[in-house]
Amino acid sequence: MNWLTPARRNWLLLALKLLIVALVAWCVRGTVLDAVARLGEYWRRLAPGWLLAAGGLYLLGLLPEGLFWHRVLRALGQDVRLGPTLRAYFIGHLGKYVPGKAMVVVLRAGLLRGRQLDTGLVIASVFLETLTMMAVGACLAIPILATWFSSDPRLLAAAIALTVVAGLPTLPPVFCRLARLLGVARSSPQAAERLARLRYRTLAGGWLAMTAGWLLMGASLWAVLRGMGIAAGPPEELLLDTAAVALAVVGGFVSMIPGGLLAREAVLAALLGGQLGGAAAIIVAALLRLVWLVAELAISAMLYAVGKRD
To answer: What pTM does this model have?
Structure first.
């Protein structure tokens, strides 16, 4: 009898994730305590206007990803309007805070249900959009890390590895083959033919759109720095902010911890620590997460209410 049942496997994975969080917290405990001691110093000079701008820039940064997802759905022969697609995309982001990240797929597919869509192809499109976003983010970080962090080849190697691992499955021939192996083509007689419609032109458009999206998210971090009263550096530091955000989000995604909790902050603090100092970088990372979470909750509430009235 196999003692490793699915239920036990899920508990083991959850325990492993909690252990990783505990280890990260233990390793950075000194910096965190210092950050907590200095929190009041930054709290007194917070500029709400800049934090509001940071939330807006983050949502604008997500928009190209939502547009790309809609384009992929259309390329796969799914007849869905742009409005419902973006509504499902933004609300679906809340699913990443649920263990396993499967809730992102469930929310998006569920919100598009009833529109004569192929559920298998919708799920495949979510994975394609997500992996493309991660591949673009890691790829953008490569030249920036090579310039600013040439003394630490581990970061550069990690960015290259993440680009390959996330980007390879998105190539149309590879993506179609993987989708068939996972049984997507069995969902309907037309599914295999629709998978074959995916072209490199669609993927290239996604890379361009998501490059703009990541730059806007980098600008969101820049706005948080301004909101904390930290003087903005020269224009090229916006590129560093973009690389920091991109690698932190990708690292959080790879960690499989809900919302990338602590994993994202650890990467962001490591990249910004040399510029701001360890304690300040921890505070920036925590405040950025709070701003983004509030922005996600606000847009989700508004879009959900709008959809209920339709």
So the answer is: 0.84
Residues in the chain: 310
Helix (H, G, I), strand (E, B) or coil at 298: helix
Helix (H) or strand (E) run with residue 235 in it: none
DSSP 69: H
pLDDT, tens digit, 9 for 90 and up, residues 108-160: 888 886 557 888 888 889 999 999 999 999 999 998 888 887 777 888 888 89
The CA radius of gyration of the chain, in Å to the nearest whole number, is 20
Q: Where are the alpha helices (DSSP H) in the chain?
A: 6-27, 29-43, 48-75, 82-92, 102-111, 119-148, 153-167, 172-181, 191-195, 200-227, 237-255, 263-276, 278-309
- Burial environment of residue 4 by CB neighbours within 10 A (0 to 12, 13 to 18, 19 or more): exposed
Instruction: List, as one string, the DSSP characters of 93-144.
Output: GGGGGSTTSHHHHHHHHHHTTTSS--HHHHHHHHHHHHHHHHHHHHHHHHHH
- Each domain of the chain, given as residue ranges in start order, spans 58-309
Q: How many CA atoms lie within 13 A of 10 on its CB side?
A: 5
